[in-house]
């Protein structure tokens, strides 16, 4: 049982991961950092325990020393414990922030998910987990049919452009596939990720073009880095073909993490001349340089900001979104704790795409719901699509009575042309 899982895990356990497993002193400092554990008090949710489960499974395979090592053979109970440990984790890395040795459970979870996928366990096509895999595959195969889709896509963007011209500025353009543009903006599925960006780029006088692809990378959620790279390759090839100077990713945490933390390793010299950035810091720089102007105090509703784990704790973008919010909102209230210590919303790591995990997500979001309630804010603003969906579900589940918005929605609605 779990033969492939163990083979793959052993193969992908590199030196840092081996070190994590060896060095953990079981001090428990990570325990209360995990929102799953905080909400459930289930020992299976202790971050260190996730690592220990994998370690025990690996050791259980090995030798006559098992009696000494407290090792288990991978039986049915162990399989289900490992599945739970790998999937009931959002990869938020809050535990690593609290660990005195920075041990990164999320890294092991990524390996574990990939190994489970290869074992064929829990990622069957008919399950929500399997859907993540399917979406990841579709993101890659889009590259093969893009020429057939292109005309229809451009027609749809033209219709959207007309609507935004009518409501915002008659000379606004949403260019697609424009050679020589400075910025390649890679959106998400749905116009909500395009319209605010288009308004801001127009106001800033930016030379930009829309990507034919989307920024999301579902293979990343299952730790399949080879396929995650294939999906990212489509964006790089497009950037090179159009000759852009920068790739800009939208309000999407995991996608931005692939862009900022993995593109360089994946593509080396090929990506060297192309800047990579997230929309939030770019818009913050527009504001700082006076390229855009907004109405101060345009929002007088009490407002709070949720730091998405992948943009904040894992990306270091804490102040840029706050500077944008403060520029338009008169009553900004911080969540406590915030920035690197902010609680994960409970919807990351691909969990939002798994209908079977909704109850778990709602339970894991308990700390977040309480944080929001304590502020008394009426609007919750964030900069990640996953977080927005999860916060919307938490709002309903916990009766928070708030509205959920994106940072760029706020800026776009307050623009002065
Ligand atoms: S805080 Fe770090 S060292 Fe302590 S139990 Fe957790 S993972 Fe191990
Ligand atoms: S990465 Fe986040 S969800 Fe996963 S074990 Fe650590 S704190 Fe918990």
Describe this structure in words.
- The protein has three domains: 3-119, Orthogonal Bundle (Fumarate Reductase Iron-sulfur Protein, Chain B, domain 2), CATH 1.10.1060; 137-288, Rossmann fold (3-Layer(aba) Sandwich); 293-416, Rossmann fold (3-Layer(aba) Sandwich).
- Helix content is 53%, strand content 8%.
- The protein contains 19 helices and ten strands.
- It has helices at 3-12, 15-23, 35-40, 47-60, 66-69, 76-87, 94-98, 105-119, 128-167, 195-204, 218-221, 225-242, 253-267, 279-288, 319-328, 358-364, 366-375, 385-398, 407-413; strands at residues 183-185, 208-210, 246-249, 275-278, 293-294, 303-306, 332-334, 379-382, 403-406, 415-416.
- Strands 2-1-3-4 form a four-stranded parallel β-sheet.
- β1, α10 (195-204) and β2 form a beta-alpha-beta unit.
- α9 packs parallel to α12 and α10 packs across α19.
- The longest helix has 40 residues, at 128-167.
- It is globular.
Helix content: 40-55%
Whole-number total of structural domains: 3
How far apart are the termini? 64 Å
The structure class reads alpha/beta
**Mean pLDDT over the residues:** 93
Number of strands: 10
Please list the strands of the largest sheet in the order they lie side by side. 2-1-3-4
Poorly predicted spans: 67-72
Which term fits the overall shape? globular
Characterize the main sheet.
4 strands, parallel
Strand content: 5-15%
């Amino acid at each position: 049982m779990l033969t492939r899982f163990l083979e793959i895990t052993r193969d992908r356990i590199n030196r840092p991961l081996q070190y994590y497993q060896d060095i953990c002193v079981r001090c428990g400092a990570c325990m209360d950092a995990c929102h799953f554990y905080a909400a459930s008090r289930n020992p299976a949710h202790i971050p260190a325990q996730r690592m220990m489960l994998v370690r025990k499974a690996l050791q259980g395979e090995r030798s006559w020393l098992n009696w000494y090592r407290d090792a288990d053979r991978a039986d049915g109970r162990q399989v289900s414990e490992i599945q739970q440990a790998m999937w009931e984790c959002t990869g938020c890395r809050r535990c690593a922030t609290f660990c005195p040795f920075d041990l990164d459970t999320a890294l092991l979870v990524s390996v574990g998910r990939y190994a489970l996928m290869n074992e064929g366990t829990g990622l069957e096509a008919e399950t929500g987990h399997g859907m993540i895999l399917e979406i990841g595959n579709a993101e890659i195969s889009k590259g093969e049919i893009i020429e057939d889709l292109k005309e229809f896509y451009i027609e749809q963007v033209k219709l959207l452009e007309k609507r935004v011209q009518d409501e915002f500025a008659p000379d606004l353009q949403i260019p697609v596939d424009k050679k020589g543009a400075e910025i390649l903006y890679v959106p998400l599925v749905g116009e909500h990720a395009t319209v605010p960006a288009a308004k801001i780029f127009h106001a800033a006088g930016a030379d930009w073009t829309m990507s034919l692809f989307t920024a999301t990378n579902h293979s990343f959620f299952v730790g399949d880095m080879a396929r995650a790279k294939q999906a990212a390759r489509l964006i790089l090839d497009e950037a090179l073909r159009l000759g852009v100077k920068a790739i800009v990713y939208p309000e999407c945490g995991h996608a931005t993490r692939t862009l900022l933390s993995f593109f360089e390793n994946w593509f080396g010299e090929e990506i060297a001349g192309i800047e990579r950035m997230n929309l939030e810091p770019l818009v913050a720089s527009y504001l700082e340089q006076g390229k855009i102007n907004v109405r101060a105090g345009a929002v007088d509703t009490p407002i709070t900001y949720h730091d998405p784990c992948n943009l904040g704790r894992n990306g270091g973008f804490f102040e840029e979104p706050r500077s944008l919010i403060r520029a338009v909102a008169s009553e900004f209230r911080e969540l406590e704790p915030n920035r690197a210590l902010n609680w994960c919303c409970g919807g990351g790591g691909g969990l939002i795409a798994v209908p079977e995990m909704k109850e778990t997500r709602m339970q894991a979001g308990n700390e977040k719901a309480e944080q929001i309630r304590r502020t008394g804010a009426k609007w919750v603003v964030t900069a990640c699509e996953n977080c927005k969906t999860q916060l919307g579900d938490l709002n309903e589940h916990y009766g928070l009575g708030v509205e959920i918005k994106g940072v760029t929605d706020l800026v776009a609605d307050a623009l002065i042309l």
